[in-house]
Amino acid sequence: MLTEREKLDAMVRLGVELGQSKDLDILMEHILTEARLFLNADAGSIYLRDDKTLIFSYAQNDTLQQKLPPHEKLAYTNFTIPIDENSIAGFVAKTNQTLNIPDVAKLPATVPYNFNRSFDERVGYTTRSILTVPLNTMYGDTVGVLQVINARDENDQTIPFLPDEERLLIHFANTAAVALERAQLTRDLILRTIKMAEMRDPKETGSHVNRVASYAIEIYERWARKRGTAEKDITAKRDVLRMAAMLHDVGKVSISDVILKKPGHFTEDEYSIMKHHTILGSRLFVDGHSEFDKAATEVSLSHHERWDGKGYPGYVDIRTGLPLKGYTLEDGRPRGKAGEEIPLYGRIVAVADVYDALVSDRVYKEPWDETKVLSLLEKEAGSQFDAELIEVFFSSLGSIRMIRQRYPDKH
User: What is the CATH number of the domain that holds 141?
Assistant: First the structure.
C-alpha cells in the first residue's frame, strides 16, 4: 500500500503522464490502474458519457485476472445504462455526487439506486465496497464516472473506502477527466476522418478500425514481451500504434468513387489506382516529427507489403509516388519491401486488417468462417505475413475474439 506522501507525489507525476496519453483506450487503462493502486482496490470500471447514457467502457478486476493465464486480458462487454437515479453510476452522473458505499449488500431502503448483481453471479465474484466519483472537467462538464471496487487491507481482506481516500479519488478524477476529454477529442477527430472514408468506402467503418487497432495492440504486446521488451517501453509505444492503426486506410478518401464502390473485380489499371491509397495516406503524416506521425506514415504506407516482397507500394518516394533510385524492377515498377524491411507496425496491421476483413460481413461479400480465415493465415505465414507475428496472433486468439465482440458492426 502507498503512504500518503507517495500518493501525493504520484498525483503530481500522474498529472503530467495522463496529459501525454492520446489514445482513449490506453488512457482509460492507465487511469484505472493508477486509481486502484492509490486506494488498493481489487477492481474498478470507467463509464464514459454519451448524451443521456453512460457507456461501460473499461474494466479491471485483480481477483478474476489472477484466474487467467499470464498477460491474458479480462473479458468484458460494452453496454449502456441511462443517466438516472436507478443505478449507482447513473446516480453519480446525474447528481454529480460522490457515492462511498461500505457494503452494497446493505444499501438502505431509502436510497433510489440499487446494485445489479448479475455480473457477480455470472463470474462468481463478490462486490462489497464501492467508491464512485464523477469525472468532471475544469468547466464542470461530466465526461463520465470512475468507480473503484473492494478496498483491501494489508491482509488482503475487503474493507470500506476511507473518507480521506474519497477526497483523494475526487482530486484524481478531476485530473483524469481533463485528460479523458482531450483523448475523446482526438478519438472523435480520428473517427470523423474515418467517417469520411466510410462515406466513400463501405469497408472502412468505425467498428472495423477499432477492431484492427485493438488487434494490433494485442499482437504487439505479446510480440514485444516474447522479445523481452521492458513493460515501460511497451506502454510507450502502444499509444501511437493504436491511433496509427485506426488510420491505416485513410488514403482511400482520395480514391475515386468509381473504383472504391465498384461491385466487381478491378481491372489492372483500377487496381493500380487503388493501391495508390497507401502512398496518399502516408503523405498526410510525412511532414510531421512526432512518434505518431512516424507510426502513421509507416502503417499507411506498408500494411499491404508482403513478407515475400510481392506486396505494394514498395520502395517509393512518398511525395511523388515514383520508385526510389536503386529499387526499380526490370519493368520499371518499384521493388516491394520484404521481410524485416517492412516496418514492424506495418507487418502487424497487415495481419490484423486481413483477419478482420475476412471474418466480417461486407456489402460485397459474406463473412468467411473463422476456421477458413485461420487456415489462410497459417498457410500464408512466411509468404504474405511475418511467420513470427502469425504465431503471436494465434496465441492471442482468445483476446482477439473478445475484441470482435466488443466492437460489433452496426447495421
Answer: 3.30.450.40
DSSP states of 122-171 as a string?
A: HHT-----EEEEEEE-TTS-EEEEEEEEEEE-TTS-EEPPPHHHHHHHHH
Structure-derived torsion over alpha carbons of residues 210, 213, 219, 225, reported in degrees to the nearest 10: -120
Task: Examine residue 361 and state whether it is found in any structural domain, yes or no.
Answer: yes
Q: pLDDT tens for residues 279-301? A: 999 999 988 888 899 999 999 99
Q: Is 90 exceeded by the pLDDT of residue 6?
A: no
218 and 356 fall within a common domain: yes
How far is 44 from 61, CA to CA, in rounded Å? 7
What is the C-alpha separation between 317 and 253, in angstroms, rounded?
A: 20
Angle, alpha carbons 318-278-372 (nearest 5°): 150
103/171 same-domain check: yes
From residue 128, alpha-carbon distances to 111, 161, 163, 376 in Å are 17, 10, 16, 47
Dist CA 183 CA 25 (whole Å): 9
CB 239, CB 23: distance < 8 Å: yes
Residue range(s) defining the domain that contains residue 367: 201-406
Q: What three-state secondary structure class fits 365?
A: strand
Contact call for residues 217 and 242 (beta carbons, < 8 A): yes
Q: Mind listing the pLDDT tens digit for each residue in 191-234?
A: 777 777 666 555 556 788 889 999 999 999 999 999 999 988 89
Angle, alpha carbons 159-162-167 (nearest 5°): 145
Helices (H) and strands (E) in the chain, counts: 16, 7
